[in-house]
Structure formats: structure tokens, C-alpha cells
Task: inverse folding
């Protein structure tokens, strides 16, 4: 399988080696339309759809005629629930609905591969040999992010396994940072990938990316 070689940093920002990336994930065809479709789907599926307003038939107001039919000098209104009155019903207002959008699994995975390939091409993926903390410490995590990606740079910090105490400490420490967000790698999604300046990828998290988003038949097709 064709691979790409990238530098690997330690938590102080120094290069400690190189790493081969699978081309089927990180050199995939960049499909902007597919990424946009996946983004729109994710945002739509995040909507609760619980919005509701009272329409004219649902407003409880007096049904007494407002005035005489003639001679009053005003329109012939017969109900205060009409939409033009304050407190009246909302015309064509929103009602609870399902905004969810379906998208085939293969297309969703292809969108993630496309995003990862675009980020790598733009130099936005930063690989580190490990990312652990002995105890939750926001200031220490802030220094690590600054050393790895630079100052004033927003970062998505991938967590390989938050059941491991040392990695859970990274997640807890990153949560308090204004310019960074922790994300368990198995929940990798198009919105978070495209939202930050850099994506910090521990080597251990990379193995999960290969397992979930790699093409099983990629190696066989090139043999």
C-alpha cells in the first residue's frame, strides 16, 4: 500500500521521528461536495425540531365580534385570534418536525477520508508520539498545545481512549481551554475536523483511524 511520511513530535514540540500514513485515508480524493453534504447532514441531525407556535385555531381568545359591522370606520374583524393582532395566531408557524437527513455509511466514511486528506495537504494535521498527563492540569495542557501547534492557534485534540486515566486527564484538561477541544477519536466527525486550525493526532489514535476509516480492500487491490 502506498504511504505518506510525516514527522512525529513529542509533547514539547520537538520532532522525534517519522510516521508512514496510509494513502487510502490521507491521500484520498478531496471531494468538497461530499464534505459539504456530510456537514449539512450533521448539522441537520443535531436539530431538536421541538419548536412550536400557536396557530390561529390554537389561540384561546375571545370570539366576540370586535365592533359593529358598519359605521365604526374600521375593518370588519370578527376575532382577536386573527394573525394581524398582538396575541393572535402565527400564520404558517413552525411545528415539531424531524430534520434528520440520511446518508449512506460509505459516503460518510468517504467524507471523513476526504477531510483528513485535505487537512494533511494543508499541513493542519500534527502527529505526536503520545499525549498523556499524570493528573488533570489545564495550564500544563495549554503549554502542550502551544508547543505542538503554536500560540493563538485553535486545535482539535484527539483522545485515543478516555477510559485510560492518563488520557482522560488530557480530555479533562483540554475542556477548559478556549482555543482547543478534546474529542475521542472514535467520534471523529466532519464538523469538528473542519472547525479548527490544527488537529493533534496521537499515534495511538491514528491506529483507531486506520481501523475505522481505512478501506479493508485497499491493500488487496494493490497487490
Result:
Amino acid at each position: 500500500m502506498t504511504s505518506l511520511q510525516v514527522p512525529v513530535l513529542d509533547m514539547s514540540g520537538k520532532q522525534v521521528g517519522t510516521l508512514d500514513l496510509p494513502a487510502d485515508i490521507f491521500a484520498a480524493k478531496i471531494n468538497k461536495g461530499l464534505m459539504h453534504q456530510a456537514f449539512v447532514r450533521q448539522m441537520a441531525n443535531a436539530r431538536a425540531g421541538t419548536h412550536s407556535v400557536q396557530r390561529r385555531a390554537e389561540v384561546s381568545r375571545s370570539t366576540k365580534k370586535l365592533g359593529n359591522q358598519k359605521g365604526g370606520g374600521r375593518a370588519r374583524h370578527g376575532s382577536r385570534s386573527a394573525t394581524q393582532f398582538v396575541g393572535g395566531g402565527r400564520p404558517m408557524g413552525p411545528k415539531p418536525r424531524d430534520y434528520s437527513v440520511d446518508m449512506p455509511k460509505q459516503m460518510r466514511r468517504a467524507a471523513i477520508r476526504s477531510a483528513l486528506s485535505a487537512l494533511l495537504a494543508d499541513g493542519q494535521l500534527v502527529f505526536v508520539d503520545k499525549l498523556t498527563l499524570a493528573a488533570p492540569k489545564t495550564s500544563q495542557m495549554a503549554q502542550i498545545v502551544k508547543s505542538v501547534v503554536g500560540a493563538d492557534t485553535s486545535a482539535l485534540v484527539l483522545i485515543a481512549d478516555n477510559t485510560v486515566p492518563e488520557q482522560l486527564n488530557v480530555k479533562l484538561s483540554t475542556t477548559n481551554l478556549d482555543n482547543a477541544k478534546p474529542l475521542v477519536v472514535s467520534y471523529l466527525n466532519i464538523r469538528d475536523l473542519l472547525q479548527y486550525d490544527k488537529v493533534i493526532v496521537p499515534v495511538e489514535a491514528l491506529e483507531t483511524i486506520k481501523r475505522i476509516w481505512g478501506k479493508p480492500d485497499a491493500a488487496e487491490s494493490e497487490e
Strands lie at 3-9, 15-22, 125-128, 155-159, 180-184, 198-202. The radius of gyration is 27 Å.
